[in-house]
Structure formats: structure tokens, C-alpha cells
Specification:
The protein is mainly alpha-helical. Helix content is 66%, strand content 10%. The chain is built from 6 helices and 2 strands. Helix 2 packs antiparallel against helix 3 and helix 4 runs parallel beside helix 6. It is elongated and about 75 Å long. The termini are far apart.
């Protein structure tokens, strides 16, 4: 039973209050927050549930599928950041150019986050497949990181 409920009749745009009102669903009020929650705070299990049952979520399936891939790619991203920072650290040690190496590292990291954000937005909108949106920016920058490591080693 709901107590002190405000009822919104959307078709008539009328609000009225009810002292008590029956709760006519098997859902618990605590479960409703998951429907409106952003996938960044949902568990992987909850995101998968929204993908399997599209009628339950408040967003399209591709939105949740993109975030599932985004969350699965997180461990790879930690390794990627180390890979992108390694050449800058190596340059600093060998050539003493701390300012230039720091600027290069920050620039590459910033460009990665911008590319990742754009791809994620396109995936959320359904303009890129979820797998591409979540993984391709990291793979591109991993290739760039490997190229930078090889260049520094020369």
C-alpha cells in the first residue's frame, strides 16, 4: 500500500493526492530506481537483464549493450593507460625532456578520452555497434601506444 501518494493522470494533466493507494504490481519500490538509473551504476547482471528483456528498461537495448561492452573493457583500459604513459616515462629518463614528455602523455590521454566519449555516445544512440563503440577507440590507441614504444626504443 502506498501512503500519501500523488497521482498524475498524464492524459488529463491533473494531479491529485490519495491518502492510501494499493500497490498493484509485484515490483518493489526499491526496484524502480534501477529502471531510471544510468548503466554506469548498474551491476553487469542488471545491464544483462535489461538487454535480455527490452520491455523492462527505459532505454533501447543498444544503449545497454554499449554499456555492457564499455564495462567489460575497463580492465583493458587500465593496461592501455600504462601503455600510453610508458613512452613518455622512457623519453623523460633518456632525454631529460620532462615538460615535453608530460605534455605528450597528457595530450594522448586526453585524445583517447575524447575519442572514447564520442564512440560511446554514438553507441548509445545506436549509430555504432556496441562492440565497436566500446572497444575500437582503445584498440586504436593501443596500436598508437605500441608504435610509440617502438619509436622510443629506436
Amino acid at each position: 500500500t502506498l501512503e500519501d501518494a500523488t497521482v498524475d493522470t498524464l492524459s488529463a494533466a491533473i494531479l491529485h493526492r490519495e491518502e492510501t493507494m494499493p500497490w498493484l504490481t509485484r515490483l518493489r519500490p526499491s526496484q524502480l530506481s534501477a529502471f531510471a538509473a544510468h548503466p554506469v551504476i548498474l551491476s553487469l547482471q542488471e545491464i544483462r537483464r535489461f538487454i535480455r528483456r527490452p520491455e523492462v528498461g527505459t532505454r533501447p537495448t543498444h544503449f545497454y549493450a554499449t554499456w555492457l561492452q564499455e564495462r567489460l573493457s575497463l580492465p583493458f583500459r587500465a593496461v592501455l593507460m600504462v601503455l600510453l604513459a610508458a613512452p613518455a616515462a622512457h623519453i623523460t629518463r633518456r632525454q631529460g625532456g620532462l615538460a615535453a614528455a608530460l605534455a605528450a602523455g597528457i595530450t594522448v590521454g586526453f585524445l583517447y578520452f575524447v575519442a572514447d566519449g564520442v564512440a560511446l555516445s554514438l553507441g548509445e544512440a545506436g549509430q555504432l555497434p556496441p562492440l565497436v563503440a566500446a572497444w575500437v577507440p582503445g584498440l586504436i590507441f593501443a596500436a598508437l601506444g605500441f608504435a610509440m614504444v617502438l619509436e622510443v626504443e629506436r
